[in-house]
């Protein structure tokens, strides 16, 4: 099955926009076996034996944090895992397609608000028609956003099913940092977590000297670089033919996924989305969360020295690039890797070893 085919995915995938931390957010839920719980509609569908243990995969994407790219990737994982698995994923606050997602002046539905945000984050959100830009533009705001989303899912699950699922996190890029941070802040969520898979983890900043100088200089000169970027985005995006952009993404960038290219063009056609993406990305660089390829060698060395426990598994996939999600062949490889790791995670004896986040 190819990721871009129109098939039965729509029968099992629910993409809904809800309000989290004051921001309309695109959320995805997939349950191919129709017996657990529809997270988007709060509809309980318990057609399986009561003794069956359900495992929920929680997916956190990388920046620019748009869940639409990953729909078929996550759908295929659930399909291959079989009965007993479902998945939920979400976009970042302020990231997505549409003015109501990335804008800054729309009113919002407060029914999804939680009470765990600190006072500074809550203060601006309770002002009518305003959104706190510390949520989409900062690492801390995005972490709070993910915590409120998880609390909503687990709360609905408890109310409808009277129990909670096992959790497995799958992340991409900076999503690894978000998950590690939220699990440190919330030991109760960590206690429910069975396994964590980080794809291309963006967790440390130490690139080659020239690249380091360029990225660091750009990130720390934000007040000068951002206005220039936004002027270019507002001038160029409306006038460039979509066909030209599509051809560039396919022929030069190498995106052979047609759906991936369409989502890319939709996402970055809005200058406000470009700004939200870059503002968060520049903070990522300033706070040093970038992992070079040789980071894998460091992890293996630390594992041999017992500085990392044996239940932390590391693997380097030679043909997998950071933007694998828009490359059809690489999606196949990533799906196979995730399914293999999830199926084997129960075989690891963790009695004497615990991962240190």
UniProtKB/TrEMBL annotation:
Keyword presence, Cytoplasm: no
Assigned protein family: Belongs to the AB hydrolase superfamily. LDAH family.
Listed PANTHER family: LIPASE, LIPID DROPLET-ASSOCIATED HYDROLASE
Species of origin: Stephanodiscus triporus
Keyword hit for Chloroplast: no
One GO cellular component, as annotated: lipid droplet
A Pfam family annotated for this UniProt entry: LIDHydrolase
Transmembrane segments: none
Superkingdom classification of source: Eukaryota
Signal peptide: none
Protein name, entry field: Lipid droplet-associated serine hydrolase
A molecular function GO annotation: hydrolase activity
Subcellular location per the Swiss-Prot or TrEMBL entry: Lipid droplet
Keywords: Hydrolase, Lipid droplet
């Amino acid at each position: 099955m190819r990721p871009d085919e129109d098939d039965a995915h729509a029968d099992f995938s629910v993409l809904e926009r809800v309000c989290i931390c004051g921001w309309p957010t695109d959320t995805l839920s997939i349950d191919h076996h129709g017996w657990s719980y529809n997270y988007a509609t709060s509809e309980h569908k318990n057609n399986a034996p009561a003794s069956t243990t359900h495992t929920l995969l929680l997916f956190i994407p990388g920046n620019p944090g748009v869940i639409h790219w990953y729909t078929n990737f996550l759908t295929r994982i659930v399909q291959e895992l079989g009965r007993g698995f479902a998945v939920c994923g979400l976009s970042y606050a302020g990231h997505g397609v549409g003015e109501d997602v990335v804008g800054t002046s729309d009113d919002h539905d407060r029914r999804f608000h939680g009470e765990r945000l600190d006072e500074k984050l809550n203060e601006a959100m309770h002002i009518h028609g305003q959104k706190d830009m510390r949520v989409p533009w900062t690492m801390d705001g995005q972490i709070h956003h993910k915590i409120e989303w998880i609390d909503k899912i687990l709360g609905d699950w408890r109310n409808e099913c009277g129990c909670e699922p096992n959790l497995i996190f799958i992340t991409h890029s900076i999503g690894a940092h978000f998950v590690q941070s939220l699990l440190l802040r919330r030991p109760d969520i960590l206690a429910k977590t069975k396994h964590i898979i980080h794809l291309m983890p963006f967790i440390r900043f130490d690139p080659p000297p020239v690249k380091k100088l360029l990225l660091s200089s750009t990130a720390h000169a934000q007040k000068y670089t951002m206005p220039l970027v936004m002027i270019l985005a507002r001038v160029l995006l409306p006038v460039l033919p979509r066909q030209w952009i599509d051809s560039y993404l396919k022929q030069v960038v190498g995106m052979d996924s047609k759906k991936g290219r369409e989502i890319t063009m939709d996402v970055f056609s809005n200058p406000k989305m470009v700004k939200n993406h870059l503002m968060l990305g520049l903070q990522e660089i300033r706070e040093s969360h970038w992992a070079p390829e040789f980071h894998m060698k460091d992890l293996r060395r630390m594992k041999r020295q017992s500085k990392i426990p044996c239940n932390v598994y590391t693997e380097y996939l030679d043909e997998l690039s950071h933007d694998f999600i828009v490359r059809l062949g690489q999606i196949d490889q990533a799906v196979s890797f995730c399914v293999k790791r999830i199926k084997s995670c129960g075989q690891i004896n963790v009695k004497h070893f615990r991962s240190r986040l």
